[in-house]
Specification:
Layout (H helix, E strand, L loop, with lengths): L1 E6 L3 E2 L4 E12 L5 E14 L2 E11 L3 H6 L3 E11 L2 E10 L4 E11 L4 E12 L2 E14 L2 E8 L4 E7 L4
Length: 167
């Protein structure tokens, strides 16, 4: 296939607010032939306590996943809040023309230089399927990595995680 991608330069509306945009055009031949068009437009606002992002995405292709899910337009918002030892991250994404959405949030508190507690919540809705999970974690810093003891609602089990590891 042939692909054309473009990333436009960042437009600064003021010292704290910027706009980004990109696009991709793709033509495939063979068993998965057909055109595909993707576009994205985002606005980011930096604040003293964190940042807020608002994005609009457009995706038009004839892949099986797109055909089954329907929908070409998506709106998403992300916010980050940090003060002292606490951080909060929130994310929400919703299709504007199909029945699917995704919500995520996490809260983290640094108990000391070595220990951190956190909680996360995820809710995904895709057509008739809904998935909910939340978990709690106590983590311990080992050098540049963290070792976390976690409990998940979905599995109802305690687990061990190596955070920030690359294999």
């Amino acid at each position: 296939g042939v692909r054309l991608r473009g990333q436009f330069g960042t437009i600064n509306l003021d010292k704290l607010t910027s706009v980004t945009s990109s696009f991709a055009l793709h033509q495939r031949w063979g068993t998965t032939s057909g055109p595909a068009t993707y576009g994205s437009l985002g606005i980011v606002r930096q604040m003293g306590w964190g940042s807020m992002n608002l994005n609009y995405d457009y995706a038009a292709d004839d892949s099986l996943a797109s055909t089954l899910a329907g929908g070409k337009h998506r709106l998403s918002m992300e916010g980050n809040y940090e003060v002292g030892r606490m951080s909060v991250n929130l994310f929400a994404s919703k299709s504007l023309d199909a029945d699917w959405s995704s919500y995520y949030g996490d809260l983290s508190y640094q108990l000391s230089g070595l220990y951190r507690v956190s909680a996360a919540y995820t809710l995904d809705k895709y057509l008739a399927d809904t998935s909910l999970d939340y978990n709690f974690m106590l983590s311990y810093r080992l050098g540049v990595r963290e070792l976390g003891l976690t409990w998940s609602r979905k599995t109802r089990r305690v687990g061990l995680e190596i955070l920030g590891a690359r294999f």
